[in-house]
Structure formats: C-alpha cells, structure tokens
Amino acid sequence: MAIATVNPATGETLKTFQPHTADEVESIVAAAHATYAELAATTFAERAAWMRAAADLLDAELDEVASLVSTEMGKTIGTARYEVAKSARGMRWYADHAEQYLADEHPVEPGDVGASTVSVRYQPIGTVLAVMPWNYPFWQVIRFAAPALMAGNTGILKHASSVPQSALYLGSLFARGGFPAGAFQTLLLEGGAVAPLLDDPRIRAVTLTGSVGAGSSVAEAAGRNIKKSVLELGGTDVFVVMPSADVAAAAAAGVNARVQNSGQSCIAAKRYYVHEDVYGAFEEAFVAGMAAQKAGDPFDESSSFGPLATEQGRRDAHALVEDALAKGATALVGGEIPDGPGWFYPATVLTGVTPEMRIYREECFGPVACLYPVASAEEAVERSNDSDFGLSSSVWTTDDSEAELFQNGIDAGGVFVNGLTASFPQLPFGGVKDSGYGRELSALGIREFTNIKTVWRA
User: Domain Aldehyde dehydrogenase, which positions (predicted)?
Assistant: First the structure.
C-alpha cells in the first residue's frame, strides 16, 4: 500500500510520501537508542512539564489537526475534534499521574522475607516500537506514547500508510513540547518492513493495534527475539438488551454504538443479542434509528458519519454483507453501495445471520449490525462467548442479578452495563482471545513497558 493521503470522501490522492530509506531508518533507531539514557535520567517533573507543553500545543492546534484527521481518514469533523481533545486530556492525565503509578511499592514486611528493606520498583526498559492503525490516528498513538514517555522510555511510531501527515505531526509534537529530539519519532514504512525492526537489539518492546494477522506476525518476531509485546487486535463486541432495560434508550445507544467512526472501531457493537420479549420493540426502534443515520461529507456538521477510510475497507465490509445475503440473511436497511464518489457505505442492519455466514464470526469494520433474538440472559452470555474475539461488551439491564451474570460471565476485557464501551485514561483497556493481550491505559498500561524490579536489602 502506498504511503499517501487519499481523501476517502472523494477518492482523490492529495499527497504521497516516500518510505524512509535504510539509512534514515538507522538514523531514527540510533537516535531513539541514544536518547533513552538521557530521558531515563530525567525526573517525572521534567517529563510532566514537557508532556503538558505538548498537550497545550495540541489544544492550540486542535482545529488544524482535526481537519487533517477528517481529510486523511474520513471521520466527521466533530468526532475528529473530540478525538484530538481527548488525546490532549490523556497526555495531561499521565503527566499528572505517572509518578504515582510508578512509585515504589512495599508489598510485604521486610522481615517476612529476611530483609531490612524490600520494595518493588518500576523502571523504563528502552525504546518501544508502536505499530498503530488509521481509525483513531491520534488517540491510538497517544494512549501508548504518553505513558511510555512518562515512564522514561523512548518511542518510535510506525503509523498506518493511509495517515502519513498525522504520523509526521505526532512525530514532531513531543520534541516541540520540550522532550529531547530523539525521544519520539515517526518512521514512514510499509507494513512488511515492521517485523525486521524487532530483530534490532536496540528495540526493546513493541505494541500493536491492528488485525489478527498483523498481530500474529509482530508477536512472532517479538517472541523470537524475547521482547515484550502488547497487542490489541479488534473484536466482534456484543450489545445485549434484556426486558428490564429502557428499550428506547438502548436502541438509541445501539445506533450510536454501530455508526460511531463509521463503524470502524474495535469496540463498536457488532452483534446485538436482544431478549425475545423486547426483540420486536427494539428492532423497530433500532432499524428506524439506523435508517435515519446518513453518511455524508465529513466537514458537513449535519452528517451522521463519514465514508469508510479506504476503498479496500469498503470492499471488505460489503463482501461480508453480500455473503450473508446470498446465504439467506435479510437486510432490514442498507446493504448496498451508493452511487457517487468516495467510499461511503450506508448504516445496515442484518437479521437471519447464521454460523455458515462469514459475518457471524468475522469482524465487520463498517456500519453493519447483526440482530439476534435470545431467550434468556444465560443464552446471551453463551452466544456472546461463541466468538474468537473478546474485547469488550455493552449490556442493558436494570436487574442486578443479570448484571452480575454478565459481568462475571462474558469473556472479554470489559463489560459496560447500561452504557457504551469506551476508553478512559483512568481504566485499563484490552482484550482476551484473538482480541490480543496486555493492557493500555491506567496504571497497568504504563507498567507494561517497565522493568518491574524487586529491590531486597539485608
């Protein structure tokens, strides 16, 4: 895939970039490695001041950056502004809390282990490579970069080939805020060039958000080199509605859960399991809500959502819909590629989806929902877990016993009751099974790329 900014609303190629040469890659890796010792020796207060300054720059340039995001990947300008502002908030969160998260711990009385003093210390490990996707081109990067830098690590970003200008902006942001020049840099490379970087002993760890295939390749290279990896690989998240729920509110939230970011979100609801007692009412409200969502110009504030980010992405989403329809599913709304320029796809609702259909198990990265009736909370849990993925989930019930059943029973990295799955700097984020391993955000996220050192003294 060429490294280029291609406007997904028009299909027009706006700007192309050459991949970094082997010599340029070497220079970037060498700078990160050399800067690590310098950065690790700085104080939390110094790093926090630089992080806040970088966040101030991001806030000051919010409109410009949001416009760039909308142009490169097609999300509406309002959601782009929100993403950029959220990224600045995340940076400030780690500036404010990193020292607390990484403070020495004293888990036992020293005498219990034959010592005069004992502690657990969190220290940086070196240069971390980040392989990031296009769907949240700023937030996905910041939720790695802010904790990694605040811990004292250096970072190298290999961003998606379709958002090169976002990547270059991020590559300069932290140096502009005051971090040493080699602390965080961007590599412009195509996907196949990533795994060999992990053979370089100067790269100490890797984090990737992307497909299962990409994650498997990177994890294999990291494992071969005995390097830490954190993977977030998507999901087929469930949205469960029980009879005690406010069905109208659940249906409205369910629409938002499916069309947010044009359906291109790992944590967007994709499988809707609705109790048969309220299935009819939910279907009616949900389909009406989806039909009212209009894909349009990302810069038009009235657009519900924008185009899909790439032409191939639209092909992939539509292929899943066509496969389901050919095998007997029904489209209650949507399901057809519209005429005209750009990579738009309508909000789509499928029923009658069965296991032989690809969309039953595969992640659909587009505004396509699958509705299923269930007879009980237990069946909803069982069907939720009948998936290779386990990222997050959203369940709607006012029955405390049902809520407890879902919270304990759903095999995923998160269960959100009467609310949409979201990511917060304060809470850990990640999944199980093919959704990956490790955690981002919170204290757990910043500790992923540290040396957890036992310090024992007689």
Answer: 3-455
